[in-house]
Write a structure and sequence with these properties.
The chain is mostly helical. It has helices spanning 2-20, 33-56, 60-67, 69-96, 98-115, 131-160, 166-183, 185-192, 194-202, 212-236, 248-275, 280-302, 311-362. The two termini are 41 Å apart.
């Protein structure tokens, strides 16, 4: 039970770090979004995975040879799908607003990231008593995300005095939905790449560092769409020259802080999902997404993002956060039910073996 509690604590810490990783961007000077995001993508998705993966798993080339090229390539492509989700997310935020885009993307990602991995998990069955908790948790997430989305819409309407125009709303909505679906590919990649983790463990890697065998191809795949899109914007907006001049050390330090926070949160999520057992990626992902929404909402309130928005948006935001907290409790109880079912199945198997041995002795 102690290990179980540690996994949930790591999951909450991971979501908190992920929600905080964008805060340093508020203090960047002179750079455009594309400048900051290009440096973040290079550090978080290329440099840190490479720098940490090989020392943590000295036999990493042998791991990839052992599992075969197709698995590694599919993990890379799933990472590229997740990377494309980040590009679409940025476009959706610009079109339909941050609050609505954030809630739609994370809500769909939470549901899809929880439902898709079981297609690749054959070794465990869902305990019957856990099913209502899982379904209820997903419904609570949907309601919580909807409340947060309504809060974001009401806040933006209070600030601007008008809603998004219908002509721009539909393309933005489509991009947000696609981004949510593709964002779940990170969790799917982690589930599909489990053979890489198993081989790394067999070759002596620790349970914490073995996930680097999956993160490396997954994040390198995610770097491709992000860096390509940033290069396009840097050329289209003629902002390459902003990498020169004053504030470079300050901006690089802030982008590095973003990369460390994000990468730290991602690694912690992998460790927490592994600690939750066979269905860790199913239970952990929606909780991870929910914690991000909760903490991001609290950060938004603390940094004054909800000032002058009126009472209704804050109440909707508070209601959404409360629903997401209840959803986290539901998933935690579902995981405990699965653990109890696994323990019961193990005891039943032991009894059957003992009974069989007893019959042999009688004979």
């Amino acid at each position: 039970m102690a290990g179980n509690a540690s996994a949930w604590a790591l999951l909450i810490l991971a979501g908190t770090a992920n929600a905080a990783f964008g805060l340093p961007m508020k203090y960047v000077h002179r750079w455009g979004w594309e400048n900051t995001w290009a440096v973040w993508s290079l550090l978080a998705l290329v440099v840190l995975p490479i720098v940490l993966a090989f020392p943590c798993i000295p036999t990493l080339p042998a791991v990839y040879r052992g599992v075969g090229f197709p698995v590694t390539w599919i993990v890379f492509l799933l990472g590229a799908g997740w990377g494309l989700a980040q590009v679409l997310f940025g476009k959706a935020m610009h079109t339909i607003g941050i609050g609505l885009a954030f809630s739609i993307v994370l809500g769909i990602s939470a549901a899809a990231g929880s439902l898709l991995p079981p297609l690749f998990l054959r070794s465990a069955a869902v305990a019957p008593e856990a099913v209502p908790l899982l379904i209820g948790g997903l419904l609570l997430i949907a309601l919580g995300v909807a409340a947060c989305a309504q809060a974001g819409l009401r806040r933006e309407h209070a600030w601007s005095g008008k809603a998004a125009t219908p002509a721009s709303f539909l393309p933005g909505l489509v991009m947000a939905v696609l981004s949510g679906l593709l964002a779940s590919f990170m969790n799917l990649g982690l589930a599909f790449g489990s053979p890489l983790t198993s081989i790394a463990l067999a070759q002596g890697a620790s349970s914490g560092s073995s996930n680097f065998a999956v993160w490396l191809p997954l994040l390198l795949g995610g770097a491709v769409p992000n860096l390509v899109y940033c290069a396009y914007l840097l050329s289209h907006r003629s902002t390459w020259n902003r990498f020169r001049g004053a504030s470079q050390a300050r901006n690089l330090s802030l982008a590095a802080a973003m990369a460390i926070l994000w990468f730290f949160s991602t690694v912690l999520y992998g460790v927490a999902a592994h600690g939750l057992g066979a269905w860790g990626v199913v239970l952990g992902w929606p909780v991870f997404m929910s914690v991000i929404v909760i903490v991001a909402g609290l950060f938004g309130i603390a940094t004054g993002e909800w000032r002058h928005s009126g009472r209704a948006p804050i109440l909707f935001q508070a209601a959404g956060i409360l629903l997401l907290v209840i959803a986290i409790v539901a998933f935690s109880r579902a995981q405990n039910a699965m653990r109890r079912a696994e323990a019961g199945n193990t005891r039943a198997s032991v009894h059957r073996v003992c009974a069989s041995l007893g019959q042999l002795n009688v004979r």
